[in-house]
Amino acid sequence: AARLCSGAGGEAEAANGDGAMLRHLARKLRASGPVTVAEYMREALTNPGQGYYTRRGGVGESGDFITSPEISQVFGELIGIWYISEWMAMGKPSTFQLVELGPGRGTLTDDILRVFKQLASVLSKCDVSVHLVEVSPKLSEIQAVMLTGGKVQPNPEDKSAYMKGVSKTGIPIFWYRDIQDVPPGYSFYLAHEFFDALPIHKFQRTEKGWREVLVDIDPEVPDKLRFVLSPSRTPATQIFIQPEETRDHVEVCPEAGVIVQRLASRIEKDGGAALVADYGHDGTKTDTFRGFRNHKLHDVLSAPGTADLTADVDFSYLRKMAQGRAATLGPIKQREFLKNMGIDLRLQVLLQNSGDTATREQLLHSYDMLMNPEKMGDCFNFFALLPHQRLVHPDKKDKPESKSPLPPVAGFNELLLK
Ligand code: SAH
Questions:
Q1: Ligand 1 center to residue 194 CA distance, Å?
Q2: Pocket residues for ligand 1 (CB within 6 Å)?
Q3: Residue with the nearest Cα to atom 14 of ligand 1?
Q4: Do 280 and 372 share a structural domain?
Q5: Which of 201, 374, 406, 415 sits at 20 to 30 Å (Cα–Cα) from 137?
Q6: pTM for the full predicted model
Q7: Distance from chain centroid for Cα 21
Q8: Are residues 236 and 377 in the same domain?
């Protein structure tokens, strides 16, 4: 199953697995008191020794959750076409970097690079390179095998990257821990199920005002964690709760805000576009923090480091953080985006070309997973950052008729490849 789109909690599951992370957290909490949910989530997911992504990062059928690129190759192919369509609409620049944040097993980039190869005649004069932002050493190894066959060079001297290699299709690939290390330049960014993994703060309205939800050790049960409320306001309640807020429970992901600001500034300065795909809402949901293990909901406070922790992406917050520097489109539902990108036609071609019933059934099943509103079709969204001039001619205000209309942005409108 895919990670469900909302609904927090999950049945408490026996905390088996090794308890190293729990012991580490319990020591820390005993010594210095409760921590924010963001701090807890960061430790549980990306602690360099024991974090969930650092150690296992269970994307895929044999892991803890499955994602769209793992379900069907068509997903990545259509995203590859999105980049080519934007590259053409932006006047076919002579070079671009494809930058993926949180590439998981590397499947999405692999599918995109296959499309780039198939459309080599279109891209022939363009110098393409791939830049992967990945904190997990374990997952970067899996990506290296998927994309290069495992032929990589660690710590290259000439770059800020921690690893480099060449894709099976001959394109240079570099790995970084942080988006800030990726060299500047015309870039197409991609973040699929990345923002939902970043640490969130949780807040609750009380009679005495806003309080922050914290994680503490349960005094009654050894090595058991529990949620508590901060006794007074915290710096985060003051910064992140808007005076006009109407909800009683709020989640905010400042790290997502910072990354979107970085993407927007880079796009404003060097050109390009960013495509963000994730489950999320437009500033309306309240309690979406949840855990997954073995494809099942998992209590977020039980056996930290052994389960994936995630929260819905607040697209209204991302839009606000991009504002001024880049234009935004969406969020639009996954099924609408993929339909606009031509998924129906692509499915027909694959069905016609497949000889056996099992393959056909698999194609139809994966189409249903991606598109069915009850499955991933409605709760996954696409959201884009684009340079302002991609949507409005700079001189449009003075001379509305002066230029031919800008081509529509594929996915958010129907795909028109000329
Ligand atoms: N995009 C993939 C994987 C999603 S899982 C897919 O859709 O299948 C989240 C990914 O983000 C993993 O690769 C994880 O290791 C990475 N990740 C999580 N937190 C990160 C951070 N702070 N910086 C960089 N990568 C991170």
A1: 5
A2: 45-46, 53, 57, 59, 67, 69-70, 102-104, 108, 133-136, 139, 192-194, 197
A3: 102
A4: yes
A5: 201
A6: 0.94
A7: 25
A8: no
